[in-house]
UniProtKB/TrEMBL annotation:
SMART domains: HTH_XRE. Keywords: DNA-binding, Membrane, Transmembrane, Transmembrane helix. InterPro entries: Cro/C1-type_HTH (IPR001387), Lambda_DNA-bd_dom_sf (IPR010982). This is Helix-turn-helix transcriptional regulator. The keyword Transmembrane applies. It comes from Bacillus tequilensis. Gene3D superfamilies: lambda repressor-like DNA-binding domains (1.10.260.40). Pfam families: HTH_3. The keyword ATP-binding does not apply.
């Protein structure tokens, strides 16, 4: 079968009209009609999207064969829109999560400041903790299921798009490196007085505990805000390395067993 015949067969099996398929691959009905009639081929990005929609390999679409071979499936194709959406999604979700976690840490400050006033510190702790929990829940609600597949499957990209992502990844690592150092130093600076006091190496540091907690909260906010963005880039730019991690392979096996139950 030719590419056009395969496209027609797959579209019919999927129950899609030419208009519906055109909408999925961001093209026109006329383009779909031309492809099915053997009047040209889609560009690489759209060809990968078609393979992704019908769950067949690109080899199957372009080479002579009778039936699609699922074992030849190359991976999940990530369009520019999907990649950019994933990065924005990570920023949005972890903006709330990082704020929520830092607020939960910060909620201990009223106790340290108003130890002699239980009514005051209890009320302040409740208010701050509720704000923190509310922010975390908001982040969880904001999470979209459509991006979960990027963490579960091997990914394929248009070559030029992957080069652009790689360049952006290198740039963002440079820009965020100094900020991450500030976050780590903030946490370390906040933890050290607690350790020194606990090990009786130094005394009289209790008065600085509120400042220490604030430093820890700030450091956590910075790291939780930045690290998921860098990880999102790594998932796409270094996908082969990502899918070969033990954790990825283990989670994939667990999902397969769950599907078979």
């Amino acid at each position: 079968m030719t590419f056009g015949e395969k496209l027609f067969k797959l579209r019919k099996e999927k129950g899609l009209s030419q208009e519906a398929l055109a909408e999925k691959v961001n093209t026109t009905r006329q383009a779909i009609s031309k492809w099915e009639n053997g009047q040209g081929f889609p560009e690489t990005e759209k060809l990968l999207m078609i393979g992704n929609i019908f769950e067949v390999s690109i080899d199957y679409l372009l080479k002579d064969s009778v039936e699609p071979r699922p074992d030849n499936k190359e991976g999940y194709y990530v369009s520019r829109e999907m990649a950019d959406g994933f990065l924005l999604h990570q920023r949005k979700v972890f903006k709330y999560v990082s704020f929520g976690l830092s607020m939960l840490i910060f909620s201990t400050v009223p106790y340290l400041v108003f130890k002699q006033e239980p009514a005051i510190y209890t009320l302040l702790i409740i208010i701050i903790a509720v704000l923190g929990i509310g922010a975390i829940v908001t982040g969880m609600i904001t999470e979209e299921d459509k991006y979960k597949v990027l963490k579960k499957e091997a990914l394929i990209f248009d070559q030029n798009h992957h080069k652009e992502l790689t360049a952006r990844y290198k740039d963002i690592k440079k820009r965020y490196a100094a900020i991450m150092v500030v976050g780590v130093c903030s946490i370390v600076a906040g933890v050290i007085p607690f350790l020194l006091e606990r090990k009786h190496i130094a005394s009289g540091l209790i008065a600085y505990y509120p400042v220490c907690v604030v430093l820890i909260a700030v450091g956590v906010y910075i790291l939780i805000r930045i690290l998921p963005i860098i990880e999102a880039y790594q998932i796409m730019v270094k996908n082969e390395e990502y899918i070969n991690r033990f954790g990825f392979k283990l989670s994939k096996r667990v999902r397969k067993r769950m599907d078979n139950i």
